[in-house]
Amino acid sequence: KIMDKDKRDPSEEVEILLRFGHHPNVITLRDVFANSNKVYLVMELMRGGELLDKILRQKFFSEQEASGVLQIVAKTVDYLHSNGVVHRDLKPSNILYADDTGSPDSIRICDFGFAKQLRAENGLLMTPCYTANFVAPEVLKRQGYDASCDIWSLGVLLYTMLAGNTPFANGPSDTPGDILARIGEGKFALVGGNWDTVSPQAKDLVKRMLHIDPNNRLSAKQVLNHQWVSQRDSMPHLKLAFQDAQIVKGSLAATFKALNDHNLKQATLEPVGASGLAQRRGKARPKSSTEL
């Protein structure tokens, strides 16, 4: 990974990778080089490519397989959150396989360029046991929002694994305004297509992870304790079909680009659904298929 010093300070990303790269599902930082203009991060080679590429190549994916993937990723996110780290850019292209086996154990969370560590007002890193006494309430609130955004991103991934298409974009040509409007209103379908054969437990988890109100979204630990994850062996083996791979990837790219562009303008990385306006709209709107 190559970064321009003028555009971004890589120190936070490097520090996070050095502290947590020993986790089996976090990408390992091998070395760091720098010159007057650039910083070069030498990372563990990801031979298996993107998680979503592998899934889409299969054409079909079962609930049990999707549950296994989500369990590994949510367990890693729970580990990071419990250590005061929020990723803030958990789009599917940042979840990769270290090898070609396709085993969930070879999954790695990558690209910590937007990640943040919980710090006290004096800048010192905070471990969980010191959090309550030494971190300002507004910092804790910000950390909670960012953690809920990580869960929302995983909810988008879960929806895509189950539905074979994306929740908020119909195709790569959707405008950012259209996508942001759907996100802000919490509109996504859980009927038709694959959803007619997906288990009620899976639908329940999707709704809880994509809840429009960050305060009502599940935590990573709650995702792990949800029946659809904790009782994976009892979930259906039925193979779920996917849309054209390029359409799915294009739709996901459009979704996260719209969000990132919006958040850069707002100087925040919260999904648009976290805004006060979006939440007021959500309370006022009629029930959608996600609430039936």
UniProtKB/TrEMBL annotation:
Pfam families: Pkinase. SUPFAM superfamilies: Protein kinase-like (PK-like). PROSITE patterns: PROTEIN_KINASE_DOM, PROTEIN_KINASE_ST. Residues 1-229 form the Protein kinase domain. Coiled coil: none annotated. InterPro entries: Kinase-like_dom_sf (IPR011009), Prot_kinase_dom (IPR000719), Ser/Thr_kinase_AS (IPR008271). One of its GO terms (molecular function) is ATP binding. PANTHER family: SERINE/THREONINE-PROTEIN KINASE. This is Protein kinase domain-containing protein. It comes from Arion vulgaris. The gene is ORF171982.
